[in-house]
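Allow me, if you will, to draw on your knowledge of protein folds for a short while. I have a record of one protein: its chain in single-letter code and its fold written as discrete structure tokens. I should value your view on which stretches of the chain appear to form regular backbone elements. Thank you for your consideration; the sequence and its tokens are set out here:
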Amino acid sequence: MDTAVSTQPVLIDVQSCRQAYHKDANADLVVLDGVNLTLHEKEIVALLGRSGSGKSTLLRIVSGLLKPTAGSVTWRGVPVDGPTEGVAMVFQSFALFPWLTVQENVELGLEARGVAKAKREALAEAAIDMIGLGGFENAYPKELSGGMRQRVGLARALVVHPDLLLMDEPFSALDVLTAETLRTDLIDLWVEGKLPVKSVLMVTHNIEEAVLMCDRILVFSSNPGRVASELTVPFPHPRNRLDPAFRQMVDDIYALMTRRAAPEPKSPAAPPPSPLAMPLPRVGTNIMAGLMETLAGEPYNGRADLPALAASLQYEVDDLLPLGEMLQLLHFGVLEEGDISLTDQGRRFVEADVDERKRIFAEALRHYVPLVTMIRQVLDERWNHRASAVRFRDELEDHMSPDYAEDTLRTVIGWGRYAELFAYDEEAEQFSLEDIE
């Protein structure tokens, strides 16, 4: 597919897209803001970013399943108003009907369109053969491996010959080898002109996957989701992961994703942001300690290139970046231009014994995590030194989605327990100072 993108017809055009959800008596939760996307025929484009950056939301907007709060979306120049004809989607979960055979699952979309039985059987058989499942037409999903089930999902999307194929992290539920085989097969079909689609728009958080498969990559920032960078991938297919230019592009994208955005100018009259408006990912103390120990040892000696570290630990960007950011938040590490390095405080932690580690961690929590400080202050001030988790969860939900609030609370519970700043009763959902100090 070496035709210049700029000369091809436009399929989807998204301009100034904003998606926000209203929260009673609170500021709206903004998921996407000011997003522009133009997708032409004969290109594969990746939406690359962290979980929660609004990529899947944008995919639903493009498909017509979700109407944006503001902005415009057109399909071949016509405003999108409801599900878009000529668009098919492949999901992260296989989403197959377990009581239907492979053949029957693939035929579903054709049946919904009123295609005659004989024709839909022929089209389904052709799609099943194309994605490498010939001979499994009469098998049920439970009899198939994960990779085979995802191939059925692909065949079901492709059998209607859509102009645009949307893929929402289609390989993330598969093991590494199966995912790699499926990526390669898809690209081979695309390059050979056998994939019955005009363009592909895919969501991923796997940097190498984006560079391996796509012609363009839109890198998203988070909170709210915005297109931070747009990159053209210049390499012809098939692509070699070991090519120095390929590796350099992966490194450059890691650098983009770890670069701190410049703070937005605030109105003098605007209130300061709440110290609780800080969503925390599910990152445990053991895995943080393990990463610091890895960084302190050979061959890193305190500093590592993120792509190399991710490869050696078999982590994806969605695993490694939140971990690095939490080390940075606690001043144990620094993320900078695609590298991660230990601070002096991080080295102190690695060299300390168990009790000293807990003391260092507690000190960092009190200084840099306002929610921990708030919980401990409430417990200190109350006569019975107890407080319900609901009280803090409600406050968090004033500033973030319920899912983010729950993740943040669970992270803080684990951190505070480790640092022996408070106890937590899971059954009663209650913080206390019981058995502390």
